[in-house]
């Protein structure tokens, strides 16, 4: 009796399948990812080229070559580039200098400075922008209530300082310098001082050693922070949205936003495509530049000795400068927000004007928009807080879970096509600037697709886009934590007869737990403050804190804006300090 | 009989053929060692038997059943092969105590709670780890971790036990004590054991049978002494034995019935008996292997045909002494008693029995006698 060939084949396939069900997981995730990235991309390309189903280049020529082009494309493009270059130059300079001071010199309080400077990366950039307005607003040019400088010192703040390119660059630098700081710091830390001492023994001067040894070693980290900061600048929406409009300063994302709001979808999507392409090119350049040099970055060993550079007389002056800078980036904006939220009439510093009204007050209809109940008793705001928590927790859980699964499949299948594809694809959302990416989801999920109902207006859509956008980070966390688990730990269980589910439960998950929690908490933090990605997709029912803050800012209700900005920072910081309880958690992924 | 049989098994890693049409039979209850230099494909072979790696082609049988066959499309999952495997770096689960590590395999088998307890305490006693149940792996020494990893696999009473260089992470002293422990455990348990090592002394000391591998191919399968006394080729002769065999060049002068007269560089003419069934041409080049302990040194010429050499180093190891001598332009080694009166730079004369010579074809490397 012999089995027929097909029957044998079938048995073989079943056996194969049962041993590699992890591949199935991988294929499902890959398929989903491709659907979530490519269908919207195809859809916006289609829309940008069609007019009621007929092919047209109307929108492209309108954007690129019409009389309007100057206002809707070229000027915003130039502004976008100026803003990106400006913030990149300053954040990289300041971040790397600070890293050097903290890691390689005897600057007082180095440990604390390192911890605290990261906080400004946790405070949403547009919150710093709101604080900026509170301080530098000038009512004689722009109307409304006076800014703090104006009311307290009676200074007439020039309009270029109140709004526009300059404050945007300053605010973004305050927010993004920790990015370079962290990258450079870890690279500086990985330099064994033997490398530098060898140079010293060979008679090289200090400068020469810095130039020929230290600098080339940290160059990859510097380059990659240059490009990554630059590409963040390209997609940034929040800060220009707060600090741009009064002086008609537009960047590509703000133009896209207002076009979508006014129904000019064709033009909006054309711009979204262009912005995305610029973003992709930048990251691609980064990968080209870095890949050849990456090898340096991994030299770190444990227990290295580090010789500190003595600052001598410069010690205390530099310390002061660093402290002032960090205060400007962290503490001062928060104090400003708090102060403003306690003043009944902005700009009036008499004691009787201070009130808790905007926190706990009752409704006062005679005040118009400003007369809503205080933050802690305002049903709209409470719902937004609840929505924010709902969105962030759910996104955090889903992103961490998918990141964990991706990590498992990628590491386990190392070297296979599936593993490579999955690793590459999960990086793709990184390339998409936030607001244009959201524009694609607006199109795709406006109506029903096959079994998927129309998702516009639901929390599900917000969770979906937040998860997809955070996936590069979540999957990297997953891959890293899986790589730390030797494959033999799982194989021992395979040999002992444990099935996939038992191995996950008993071995893989317990060992990867910290990575999972890190993935969850960091997604939580970044989704909590997300504005760019969400603003196009929220409806009154799904308002979250950042979008409701944006609404109050548009309505110029400064106290609510400030109070809520503070709420978001407090919520985020609380969670961040929980994150710090877990080991080896960086916030570079975002 | 539950023999393990590999037939024409190959593993191709894309650009690299790690295992090349391997044929191998491992008898039930044997302690069978795969021996070879690092990178020769031992681990890959082991992993294919365990089912952790899928061969590119070939068949693997455990007992009567095929567990893998590329022709018949059979691939039994590792869990169903009833094999225990001990990894080189122990692979203890760091988040579980010693007790939980060992319990894992028993839980998979759904064994009753009190039975589990009994089995674990018995196995802990067996590997001398009583009292360490509550420790975590990072609270154990290397040797203790090694024992836990053995206990974890032995507790499920496997019919087949595989170990991949289990002693290579231990220091020399622990290694030798664990070596006898492993032999004792094997004798107690009687599981068929496949043992992987690159250490030929370890292989000799432990094994019933040894398979020497090189470049993904089997070089020879034999008992330890057979391997030592009758290496099938130059590679095996050179790999097995410490210090290694001395190799000298020679040429065939003439072949008689089952014997041959050769002219060796520096050693003169030697008559070798028991030649295998091969025809040797006149002047064909051959390689002569002599183990260091088969060489006797004399300070005065025992008969006028003895080769003359100069002592260049004397290396006492305690139990015996190794002497390196210069013979023509070659340096060879000889083992002598530990108490001796040799001095550097003095002349000595070599003697050896012609039947202790290993003769190889210099082209194919195959043994000729
Ligand atoms: N997963 C793999 N992918 C590619 N090459 C491999 C892989 N595993 C082993 N090899 C290669 O196969 C050869 C044999 O490896 P291995 O079986 O580990 O040797 P050994 O255990 O005898 O040292 C080596 O050259 C190794 O580099
Ligand atoms: Mg190996």
Overview of the molecule:
The complex is a heterodimer of chains A (590) and B (369). The C terminus of chain A is likely disordered. Chain A has a domain of 282 residues: MetI-like fold. Chain A has a two-stranded antiparallel sheet with strand order 1-2. Chain A is mainly α and 590 residues long. Helices cover 70% and strands 1% of the residues of chain A. Chain B has two domains: 236 residues, Rossmann fold (3-Layer(aba) Sandwich); 116 residues, Nucleic acid-binding proteins (OB fold (Dihydrolipoamide Acetyltransferase, E2P), Beta Barrel), CATH 2.40.50. Helix content of chain B is 23%, strand content 35%. The interface between A and B is medium-sized, with 25 and 27 residues. Adenosine-5'-diphosphate binds next to helix 1 of chain B.
- CATH top level of the largest domain in chain B? Alpha Beta
Multimerization state: heterodimer
Q: Describe the global form of chain B.
A: globular
Give me the Rg of chain B, rounded: 25 Å
Helix content of chain A: 55-70%
Distance between the termini of chain A: 62 Å
- Poorly predicted runs of chain B are none
The N- to C-terminal Cα distance of chain B equals: 34 Å
How many β-strands of chain A, per DSSP? 2
Give Rg of chain A in angstroms: 26 Å
Return the string of H and E elements of chain B: EEEHEEEEHHHEHEHEEHHEEEEEEEEEE
Discrete helix count of chain A: 27
Largest sheet of chain A: 2 strands, antiparallel
Q: Roughly what is the average pLDDT of chain B, rounded to an integer?
A: 89
Read across the widest sheet of chain A, the strand sequence of neighbours is 1-2
| Helix proportion of chain B | 10-25%
Number of domains of chain B: 2
Largest interface: A-B, 25 and 27 residues
CATH topology of the domain at 7-53 and 356-590 in chain A: MetI-like fold
